[in-house]
Q: What sequence folds into this?
């Protein structure tokens, strides 16, 4: 993410996606990442339903493997969240994990979900901190194929805008992304 004026915006950022290239259903999805930091910085490792282009969001479903909303006292906490359609409105369920010391920019960490037809579990460095039962009919979005996204956003409703304490450029360093199936 950079502080630079492009297209009427004050910042540029990055997104990588496997949409229309690779999607899948069920497995362990993990990435080893060193996160950026600072007020208004919003890195994410997440998935959207492969039918996103035809049904839109939230009907396609969303699995947030890891999101962090940067800033003082927030650079040490990540969130795992599910989003789905509830009669035309966004429904969600999520939990967070906070490091006992330091921030996520200090070192690499492994963020993962294990997903099958029954549940989705989220992990940070193999510490399970989120479990969701996806068997109810209203959560049928999570029985379909999904594609992967990695991005660093700047600003937004959740993290707020960068301020004088935010340093640029910011980088999300991704060592690897792996998908394991049929274990």
A:
């Amino acid at each position: 993410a950079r502080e630079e004026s492009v297209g009427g915006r004050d910042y540029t950022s990055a997104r990588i996606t496997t949409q229309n290239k690779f999607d899948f259903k069920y497995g362990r999805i993990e990435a080893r990442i060193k996160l950026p930091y600072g007020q208004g910085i919003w890195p994410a490792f997440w998935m959207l339903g492969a039918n996103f282009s035809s049904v839109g969001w939230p009907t396609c479903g969303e699995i947030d493997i890891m999101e962090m909303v940067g800033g003082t006292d927030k650079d040490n906490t990540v969130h795992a969240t599910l989003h789905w359609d509830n009669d035309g409105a966004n429904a969600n369920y999520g939990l967070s994990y906070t490091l006992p010391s330091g921030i996520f920019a200090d070192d690499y960490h492994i963020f993962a979900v294990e997903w099958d037809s029954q549940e989705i579990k989220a992990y940070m460095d193999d510490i399970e901190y989120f479990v969701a039962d996806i068997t109810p009919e209203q959560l049928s979005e999570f029985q379909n194929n999904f594609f992967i996204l990695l991005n660093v956003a700047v600003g937004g409703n959740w993290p707020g805008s960068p301020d004088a304490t935010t340093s640029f450029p910011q980088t999300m360093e991704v060592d690897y992304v792996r998908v394991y199936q049929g274990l």
User: Anything to note?
Assistant: The chain has a mean pLDDT of 97. The first strand starts at residue 2 and ends at 6. The longest helix spans residues 52-55.
